[in-house]
Amino acid sequence: MTPRSSPRMPPQIQLRNMPEPLQPVTLTAEQRARAHMIASLLLDYPDGAFHERMPQLAASVAGLPAPIEAAFTAFIEAADAAGPEQLAQDYVVTFDLKRKCCLYLSYYAAGDTRKRGTALVTFLDAYRAAGWEFDADELPDFLPAVLEFSAVSDSPVAEQLLAAHRDGIEVLRAALLAQQSPWARVVEAVCLSLPEIDEAARDRVLALVNEGPPTETVGLSFGAPTFLGNLAPFAPGGAANEEVRV
């Protein structure tokens, strides 16, 4: 009689840990707007215009709180050292080919599911609640667009929009750190400008870091953020619509 083989044990999965929590810094309204505009521009595709404005951005970080200034400066120095061609290649590999490094915020909550359409409509509603109309080639949840909206709008909608997708921003930071990407420092600067996440949020982020965004709708309970229903009407503020990447 042939002896039965021992049952094969499932392979061990190496779980990733959360990066060290960041202690938010205190910013004035002007500093926060400047930090978000700089981050918006640094997270955009590094084309010719990106490199032309780099010296101006390097000067603009002066006067920001030291941790944010240091994070921006580290990225600018790394981008300069990489050079235009290498930086463009790294951008595509990082943000276009890696699921957990996605710059579209609704992807972290809805993934590649039908629920994402609802999430995108919510972003459009948020812009409109602040008096803006989104008119751009990118989707409305594109992080650089949301950050620019935050920088130029005096409506609290922008702050609430970022807060509603705080988990996704933390997942993005964790993924970029795991890849040792220079863009991790830019997202770090953004996180330093936002409120600290609580333990419940850290648990959600850890699950996303290890499991990734949803890939199917079964059991998914994602819905539109509820903050829109609590907003009072806001008058348009800040710059004219065409001055925003929306």
Automatic annotation (TrEMBL):
The keyword Plastid does not apply. The keyword Cell division does not apply. Signal peptide: none annotated. Keywords: Nitrate assimilation. This is Nitrate reductase molybdenum cofactor assembly chaperone. It comes from Agromyces neolithicus. The lineage of its organism: Bacteria, Bacillati, Actinomycetota, Actinomycetes, Micrococcales.
